[in-house]
């Protein structure tokens, strides 16, 4: 924290935004639309943050599209669901601010920016059996974006995870995957698959480093970035935040390192901190996460907590009372020959499918395998209190892996020997042999498999309820009866991967009010300081009610912050001294 405001300022703007993800770009765009001069700075050499590598879903209850897709919503219904999932894990005022503003924020962005979203016709909230849950409409997906529209700036957009592209650079959705897997069985799928492949190879022939058909979170980030470019909002890449500059209790600006030199930026109206949380801060993770923990996050490694720590040095306080410090996902890890690691998040593809079983070191099941990724890891930590469950093990048979794959092991007879040799994928002729390779209890594994097969035959999982909710079945195999999520585990060879307690972002951050203003230890707003995205204490309190509950609040509070900072100047006036 710096306090010498009489020193020279290198640059002056109305609003300084730190971080180039969805929250940061939304704040920058909104402030600019409301008449402010804006500088957007990003620590890394790519824009898009966690958003660009995410699934891209946006949870925005009461949005204007929900009724049109068959799911009319009400505040009372959405509020009931928040109460029955988040409860007192986050301040009531913040939850109400989110519900009151999310639809307006989405409408504003769709009217004034390149952002285009499409509501899901069927996508159950993660706890569909709780009062107020919806079965569609609340979650929206980014509409496909043509990356060629970014021109030379396409290379500045963060690439998606390589593991979620095929052919070395072609982005695909779950719908695309289903078409590609069925190209030899369906003419309609063959046509769709050919469209994708021809478009991709055309991009490569034109010299693009990857496919320009952008979907998921990459499309969302690209659409916001296109707006930044179109509105000629100034942005700096590879420009990390070093400190905030204060005058008394007000934040006046920040020190930003650019091209090897620290520059002092005066922000007349305020600074918005949106640097992506702290999943790659070893110190903060060790202090705030449950144990054991490790470098298992799917977030960009630049998300190391500097924004939060620097905001705290300027007087901001951390939120409290959250249910969990992170949004969890089971992650399998491949160590490559050069020592680097590839992390694969087991989100929605394999766990819910019929025939996959998860066990701990005793060979015992411990969780509903088709539950949300967040709940799955909570189940890992809960089981670990009595039996070693970190890592846990995902088990399947040969029929399963050929049809669905397992983590980085792709379906359809794709090569997987390299994964076996690397120690990522375990393969054995029998369950006894597989247990020996994994170092887990063979008797327990065999007993679990026998019970699992009985449940599959009966169509009911009496132990953990796999396939018992609409959300479970939504991710299962609709053609598998009587239970979309239950199938046998009986045909060798058998396969397994180890999964760890990974995350897709942090949930505890700077405490804020309904205007996204950072609060001090007494609960008072700090003049000139705002937070958005995962730097802000999650309005979900570390619960995970539905798909898109990180990006929905990021857009909403980014919009709130941008509007408020543009309209409320409460800092003391300071003369700008230049060289």
Give the key terms.
579 residues, alpha+beta, 8-stranded mixed beta sheet, 6-stranded antiparallel beta sheet, 15 helices, 21 strands, 30% helix, 19% strand, disordered C terminus
Shape: globular
Helical run tally? 15
Report strand %.
Answer: 15-25%
Low-confidence parts = 572-579
Q: Which structural category do the helix and sheet elements fall into?
A: alpha+beta
**Rg (CA only):** 24 Å
- What is the helical fraction, as a range of percent? 25-40%
Describe the biggest sheet? 8 strands, mixed
Characterization of this structure:
With 579 residues, this protein is of the alpha+beta class. It contains 15 helices and 21 strands. It has helices at 22-33, 75-85, 92-112, 174-181, 187-205, 216-230, 282-288, 306-313, 373-384, 398-404, 417-421, 431-438, 442-458, 470-474, 551-567; strands at 11-18, 38-41, 58-59, 117-119, 139-142, 145-146, 165-166, 170-171, 213-214, 234-236, 241-247, 250-258, 261-273, 326-335, 341-345, 357-359, 392-396, 426-428, 494-506, 517-519, 525-531. Strands 1, 2, 10, 11, 12, 13, 20 and 21 form an eight-stranded mixed sheet that branches. Strands 14, 15, 16, 17, 18 and 19 form a six-stranded antiparallel sheet that branches. Strands 3-5-4 form a three-stranded antiparallel sheet. It starts with 10 loop residues before the first strand and ends in a 12-residue tail after the last helix. 55% of the residues are buried. Mean pLDDT is 94; it is low at 572-579.
């Amino acid at each position: 924290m710096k306090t010498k405001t009489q020193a020279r300022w290198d640059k002056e703007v109305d609003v300084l935004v730190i971080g180039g993800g969805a929250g940061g770009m939304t704040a920058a765009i909104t402030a600019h639309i409301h008449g402010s001069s804006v500088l957007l700075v990003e620590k890394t050499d790519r824009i898009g943050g966690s958003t660009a590598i995410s699934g891209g879903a946006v949870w925005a209850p009461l949005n204007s599209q929900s009724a049109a897709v068959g799911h009319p919503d009400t505040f009372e219904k959405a509020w009931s669901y928040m109460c029955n999932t988040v409860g007192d894990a986050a301040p009531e005022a913040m939850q109400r601010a989110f519900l009151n503003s999310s639809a307006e924020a989405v409408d504003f962005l769709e009217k004034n920016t390149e952002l285009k979203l499409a509501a899901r016709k069927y996508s159950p909230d993660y706890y569909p059996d709780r009062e107020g849950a919806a079965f569609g409409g609340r979650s929206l997906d980014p509409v496909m974006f043509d990356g060629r529209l970014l021109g030379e700036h396409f290379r500045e957009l963060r690439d998606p995870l390589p593991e979620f592209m095929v052919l070395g650079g072609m982005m695909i959705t779950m719908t695309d995957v289903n078409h590609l897997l069925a190209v030899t069985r369906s003419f309609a799928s063959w046509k769709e698959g050919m469209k994708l492949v021809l478009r991709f190879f055309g991009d490569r022939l034109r010299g693009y480093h990857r496919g320009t058909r952008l979907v998921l979170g990459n499309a969302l980030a690209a659409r916001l970035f296109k707006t930044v470019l179109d509105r000629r909002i100034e942005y700096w890449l590879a420009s990390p935040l070093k400190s905030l500059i204060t005058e008394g209790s007000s934040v006046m600006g920040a020190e930003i390192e650019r091209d090897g030199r620290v520059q002092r930026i005066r922000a007349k109206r305020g600074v918005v901190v949106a640097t992506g949380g702290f999943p790659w801060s070893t110190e903060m993770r060790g202090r705030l996460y449950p144990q054991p923990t490790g470098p298992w996050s799917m977030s960009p490694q630049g998300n190391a907590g500097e924004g939060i720590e620097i905001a705290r040095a300027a007087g901001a306080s951390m939120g409290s009372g959250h249910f969990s410090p992170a949004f969890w996902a089971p992650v399998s890890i491949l160590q490559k020959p050069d020592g680097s690691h590839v992390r694969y998040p087991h989100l929605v593809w394999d766990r819910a499918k019929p025939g996959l079983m998860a066990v701990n070191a005793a060979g015992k099941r411990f969780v509903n395998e088709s539950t949300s990724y967040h709940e799955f890891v909570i189940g890992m930590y809960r089981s670990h209190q009595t039996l070693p469950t970190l890592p846990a093990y995902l088990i399947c048979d040969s029929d399963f892996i050929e049809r669905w794959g397992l983590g980085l092991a792709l379906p359809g007879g794709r090569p997987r020997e390299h994964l076996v040799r690397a120690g990522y994928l375990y393969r054995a002729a029998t369950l006894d042999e597989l247990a020996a390779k994994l170092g887990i209890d063979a008797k327990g594994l065999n007993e679990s498999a026998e019970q699992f097969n009985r449940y599959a035959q009966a169509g009911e999982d009496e132990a953990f309820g796999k396939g018992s909710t609409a959300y479970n079945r939504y991710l299962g195999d609709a053609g598998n009866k009587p239970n979309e999520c239950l199938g046998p585990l009986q045909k060798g060879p058998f396969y397994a991967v180890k999964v760890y307690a990974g995350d897709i972002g942090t949930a505890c951050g700077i405490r804020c009010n309904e205007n996204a203003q950072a609060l001090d230890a007494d609960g008072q707003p700090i003049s000139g300081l705002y937070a958005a995205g995962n730097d802000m204490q999650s309005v979900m309190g570390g619960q995970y009610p539905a798909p898109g509950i990180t990006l929905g609040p990021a857009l909403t509070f980014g919009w709130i912050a941008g509007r408020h900072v543009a309209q409320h100047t409460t800092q003391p006036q300071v003369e700008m001294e230049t060289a």
